Queue: 2 jobs
Job 1
Amino acid sequence: MLKVTILGRPNVGKSSLFNLLGKRARALTGETAGLTRDTQSALVEHDGRTYEFIDTAGLQKDKELLAQKMTDLSMKTADEANVVVFMVNARDGLMPWDMAFAKEIRKKSKPVILVANKSETMEDNEPVLMEFLKLGFGKPLLISATHNKGVTTLIKDLAKFAQKDVLEEGPKNDKLRLTVIGRPNAGKSTFINALIGKEKLLTGEMAGVTRDSIEVPFKYKEKECILIDTAGMRKKAKVTKTSIEGQSVSQAIDAVNQSNVVVMMIDALLGVEAQDLHLASYTFEQGKPLLFAVNKMDAAEDSKITLAEVKKRLGFSFAQIKEPIILPVSALKGKGLHQVMQTAFKLFEKSGTRLSTGKLNTWLDKALTKNPPPLSRLKRPMAIKYITQVDTFPPHFVIFVGGASDLPESYKNYLMNSLKSDFDLTETPVRFSVRTQKNPYQKDGK
């Protein structure tokens, strides 16, 4: 696999190229400079070769702490990359920052492909393009990420460095995909950085540092998984869909949908707020196992009281989970991380449970004997035929009932809770559907 990092000043079009190469609008793009803050990657297979493209924050010579951290993080990607794509803006011409960062990139001793973006109206012999020869990377390749110009040529140039190695995609749930959600500044990025042991994601005291949803491959005790960091989600009234933050929230929601286990990061100093409950409810509705990590416990005045208050607030909110999983964490100090991962893998395993039809119907007979079904609207015992499992992630069971009467919600809940208890599924959401089988020879009302 060839690792390719895309470097350049803010707003030269790195994320637009990344989105085009990745064949989906994954990174945030727009007219505002500096939208991308974290690095993120996408695996792409082309002509029998596998590429990992890495999008980065714009390189800046700025004294502001956040800008410095963004630049440092971006430059570090070159250390692990096989090839650097250095992007300049053809419309701007050669800029002093281009020269400064080209000098730093040369120190990495990596192959560099120079691309001049936003050149849709230019020819190779434009005088302004000759200035880029001063960067020391040869003649720039003219591209336009928004018009899909020159990208095929770029892929051909990259192929010279890549070996044939076809990417084999596994099933969606072949590994744990753990999405971390929560309000801004709850410590989501710090948590992932602490897990992987390096500063892969930007962190800071200012809320809203993370904008994109970032996928980080990770191996925990020989188990492959994907950690997904998300933007902090505020109340909907404070966020518009068309804003940068609105795009970030949409990506975070999409990350929940694409995950199979979710960690909600709760700020111990702020406690549980209404927005946390809304996010948790949405997660449960999507059938995703959820655990609550109460972060910044090292700064809490009384950890026992803090956890008790969180438990009390969450205890009245989720009918399908009798006792929400609540774990104390200090991402900054690296405490409680292993318990979170061990629990996440346990939930992943439970959510993938597959029960045979025979085992399910043996259980059903016992459940019906213990608590017989109610009478139908015709005053006859409801005929519950059988049960089967139709899906996993989450486990989805369908029970078939004879006659035209619907199974009362109370009895349906009895069966679902009994099944979850007997098969140790109490900590994960399940779907429980009822289908009626009407006798074709029976007339209505008889």
Note: The chain has three domains: 2-159, 176-351, 357-437.
Job 2
Amino acid sequence: MPMKLTGHTLLSLLKAHWAFGAALVVRGLEVVGKLGLYMLAARILGVFEAGLFFLCNTWVSASSTIARAGFEKAVMRHIAAELAVGRGIEARRALLGGALWVTVGGILISLLTVLFAEPLATLVFHEHELTVPLMISAASILPQTLCIFTAHALTGFNRGVAGQFVQNGLWPIITFAALAVGIHSLSGILYAFAFANLVGAVWGVVLLLHERRRLHDTAPPAGGHVENLPALWRTAWPLAIVEYVQAALNSIPTMVLAAFAAASAVGAFSVANRITVLIWVVIIAISTIAAPSFAAAHRVGDFDQLRALNRKARLAIAACGVPAIAIMLIAPTPLLHLIGPGFEMAAPALMIMALGQLVNCLLPTQDVMLAMTGHGRVLRWLNAAQLVSCCVLCFALIPPFGMMGAAIATALFIAQGGIGTTLAVLKLMPRAY
């Protein structure tokens, strides 16, 4: 039976409201850092080398996702859920086990990237000049993996704002600062990117050490026996598939476009895509703050709180995201001109992808709801359907239509994700929506 919406629950929602605002401030810092980084990098490197830079970033992001294998979200759920019922020792076991897995994964993927950089550059991306940048990018994979893992672990401790600062606030600012002080070569920027992720990872570990006092068993809440959570790897496995699919969705349009178009087109599309992806800044900021509360409320059966927090998160995302999308639709050319000359060619693509993000912005957070309430397998199948759509659309539209084909494909599978997860929550947990 769900518990009633008590004064404690209302206080939790009020705290969540302020947490949403704090998270958006941190994400605003990320937006400033990323926009500054993208604009300055594009102006310094030019369209061709900017394309190489964005390809390297895409590869690092995809590699880090593979290395984490879903353990970062599994750990976030386990920590929040176990602490909600006083099982600090189980939370500690999840934290240490997840840390071990992602560290091994990060080291392995880094080594493979160095070993296979040349065939990746020549056979996959058809850009021999990408070989050395890919090898340098390998230095970013393990730091980024640990940075994202520690951020999710902090979120499990209900320190979502600190977690988002570790994951998204530090590296854009540090990398942007490196460019501002005179690091203007592609190699130098990639080294700065690796250093920035390393700083984020170290800071995340330091913050986690301050939470170790909470990793002891306490008195469980009244209400009797609480069932055990599944093993960490069982939680991680379906979430890993989801993460892999999401990484593929983020990477496939760029990679397929790189195989059929010049690096300049890849660079312009990457900039437009990253501008629209900034809507994810709002969605992820609020969803991440809400995630541990989703897990904790579901753990104790408080569907009133679950529904209230879900609605508050959706409203906050729509209020913040829709105005930003309106700017992308009304003034795409001036927006791209701010990045640098030559990027205006991506204005139509920017508008199309903004429409896809509009659907995503109006139907947000339900993927996190599914992940935090033990419906990872459902989320996996929804993401598999997205992946099929992405592959079919990209290979059908990009060869004949180039950048516009990539934009149409991206908009369609993004919208599919928001619609699919919302329908799943309405079917599986209507009381949570």
Note: The CA atoms of residues 136 and 190 lie 7 Å apart.
